[in-house]
Structure prediction request, 83 residues.
Amino acid sequence: MEGNDFSPNTNEEFNQVLKLVQNLSPVSRLRLRDYLNSEHLIQEITISEEQKSIVRDRIAKYEQSPGSYLSWDEIETRLKPGK
Prediction:
């Protein structure tokens, strides 16, 4: 999965990865944590001022009318087939 890609399998894929991580030894979990927090991954993330502005605008709109928005759990429930 890249950047902002979303697929219906995202949650399932995450759960599969989570199970794999849970089965790692404590040492392997620490190595994975260190890798994920490593400098080379952090440096690849760049958030433009335009993106920051969009987020700030969305937060302001939410704060003005929080009842108008759905939680992620509500969105996932509505996206499930048969709902």
